[in-house]
């Protein structure tokens, strides 16, 4: 699967959830996209439910199939609960952390900021969205990029909500990845156990 660049509303309707940002389509067309979307819905098989959950996570975090499989393998080898480990690794991605810090309004926008070399990690420019942060890593906005309209608009509209595994210095536009989050701290509506069951077949 190539990286999705199509309409957000189509994905929102597919999963009946606004996973790529707010979508009016959910209230206007509360049924899946496609010519058969409005027809009678058959009961989904166990495999279909599990596959749909995996696809939802991939769309949410903007991860490709091979990247996702590698992350799952890493999560399975790490001590602890595989599904929770997977979500922790996804949350530790650089593009996701830039989004969580409020530097970008969406994960897509965060990915673009990283690719265009506007973001630093421990003082060095990093342009790899999938870069895995470690506890204690400092994520900042490059000095030349601090006046970018995208960044200033996003920070001014930043929600008061804070994430306990991150610290943010609004004066210097620097954030810190303190530690991996616990499962209950991650707000996404994901049933990670279904993904574990899918890969265990």
Task: Describe, in plain words, how this protein is organized in 3D.
This protein is of the alpha+beta class. The chain is globular, with a radius of gyration of 18 Å. The longest helix has 16 residues, at 46-61. The chain has nine helices and five strands; from the N terminus they run H-H-H-H-H-H-H-E-E-E-H-E-E-H. Strand 1 (119-121) and strand 2 (124-125) form a beta hairpin. It has helices at 8-15, 25-28, 46-61, 65-77, 82-91, 94-100, 107-115, 149-156, 192-199; strands spanning 119-121, 124-125, 137-141, 166-169, 174-177. The protein has a five-stranded antiparallel sheet with strand order 2-1-3-5-4, covered by helices on one side. Helix content is 41%, strand content 9%. The chain folds into two domains: 8-89 and 191-199, Ribosomal Protein S4 Delta 41, Chain A, domain 1, CATH 1.10.1050; 93-179, Structural Genomics Hypothetical 15.5 Kd Protein In mrcA-pckA Intergenic Region, Chain A.
Question: What is the gist of this entry?
Answer:
The protein is of the alpha+beta class. Helix content is 41%, strand content 9%. The two termini are 21 Å apart.
What's the number of extended β-strand segments? 5
**Helical amount among residues, as a percent range?**
40-55%
Order of helices and strands: HHHHHHHEEEHEEH
State the shape: globular
- Main sheet: strand order: 2-1-3-5-4
Over all CA atoms, what is the radius of gyration? 18 Å
Give the averaged pLDDT, no decimals.
85
């Amino acid at each position: 699967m190539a990286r999705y660049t199509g309409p957000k509303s189509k994905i929102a309707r597919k999963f009946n959830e606004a996973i790529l940002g707010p979508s009016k389509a959910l209230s206007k067309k509360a049924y899946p996209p496609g010519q058969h979307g409005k027809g009678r819905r058959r009961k989904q098989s166990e495999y279909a439910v599990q596959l749909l959950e995996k696809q939802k996570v991939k769309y949410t975090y903007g991860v490709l199939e091979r990247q996702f499989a590698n992350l799952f393998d890493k999560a399975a080898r790490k001590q602890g609960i595989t599904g929770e480990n997977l979500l922790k690794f996804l949350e530790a991605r650089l593009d996701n952390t830039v989004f969580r810090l409020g530097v970008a309004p969406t994960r897509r926008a965060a990915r673009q900021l990283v690719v265009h070399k506007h973001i630093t990690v421990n003082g060095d420019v990093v342009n790899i969205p999938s870069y895995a942060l470690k506890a204690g890593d400092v994520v900042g906005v490059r000095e030349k990029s601090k006046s970018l309209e995208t960044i200033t608009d996003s920070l001014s509209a930043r929600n008061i909500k804070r994430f306990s595994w991150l610290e943010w210095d609004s004066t210097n536009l620097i954030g810190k990845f303190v530690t991996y989050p616990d499962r209950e701290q991650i707000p996404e509506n994901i049933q990670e156990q279904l993904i574990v069951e899918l890969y265990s077949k």
